[in-house]
# Entry
Amino acid sequence: MMNRALTTQDLPALITGIMATLAGIGIARFAYTPLLPAIIQEGWFTASQGAYLGAANLLGYFIGALSAHALSERFSSRWVIGASFAAIALSFMLCAGAGSFAWFFFWRLVSGIAGAILMVVGPSLALAATPPERRASVGAMVFTGIGLGALLSAFIVPVLLELSLMVTWSTLGLLCIAAGLLSDAFLQRVTPLALTSDASPSANSQKGYMGIKLVVLLVIGAYALDAVGFVPHTVFWVDYLARENALGNHAASLQWGIFGLGAVCGPLMVGALAHRVGWHRGLAIAFVAKAAAVSLPVFSLALLSQSISSFMVGAMIPGIVALTSGRLAELVGPAAHKKLWGQATAAFAAAQAVAGYAMSALYGTWGTYAPLFAISGFMLAGGFLLVLLSRGVQQRHAHLSTLH
# Structure
């Protein structure tokens, strides 16, 4: 839950974390979404190829999520983070001119790998340098970078596209360099705290962890289903509005801006929600809200419906990340959390990559994005059921423990 107010001492850790999430997903992933219609209209790629390029980033994210922990253990965090920022910047700059599908696929893959490394290493480094009483506040705030990146891309991409696609790709690369330099300046002032006694679990907590393994698996399973709900709005939403529904790039970019605004507000919204109702109920509410918001375009594409869908999906993307992290920490304690969070991130990334490729293939077959939103809505409803089931299993385990 939200603990004590942030102080100026938290600033180096906070800026490091925010810049990592801004570049890692906010630019590396989300800046491609408003670019997609223009790439297709300029004839660089077909609609189907464009969708597969979006999915290449998701595959890279899975590879990066699996390798991030090992890389951060082997090399210094500053080197790993700096190399990741440079890789994302290069991925944009080297795609500034029309090229082959294989060239673009490779660099979208690289941006996904580097983005995942930033998403794992940046926030964990920020938390390691934050006192326990303020970790929940910093933990929520670092994910606002996702929304800031989406918001930034929503406003600057349409303006840059008026000039050319080449200028747009190059400028996004320069933005990543700027974010990397800012991150590095603050990273040098980040000093991880010494491990306290709570980093070593007692025999009782270890026994408790073994007992609630199924609960943890259900929560991670729900998080993996959330990854499927993540795909349509983050990869296809702008193209769906701009081309398939002929609303034009400006109207679609406005929706992407609303999405970004939601993503900035989401961590703050769920922080207040968790403080009020707890991590479990907060997570259940977030799944219901996201399922409804993802499904809304299937029923209505009125301006109000678009805007509600954009804002709520945007808010719940970092929101469910923060709530799942908090729920896992509540279940297993801080000692086991880091390892489990890595596993949860890998499960999310794998489900997201599979969903990205499957949805790209379905779009290639059907020629419409509309059913993809319905599929994601059903998957999120399934995630909600797993969250509920996890609570039932936990209560049953607690009841059996009292009997023994």
Summary: The mean pLDDT is 86. The longest helix spans residues 303-366. The CA atoms of residues 168 and 383 lie 37 Å apart. DSSP finds 14 helices and no strands in the chain.
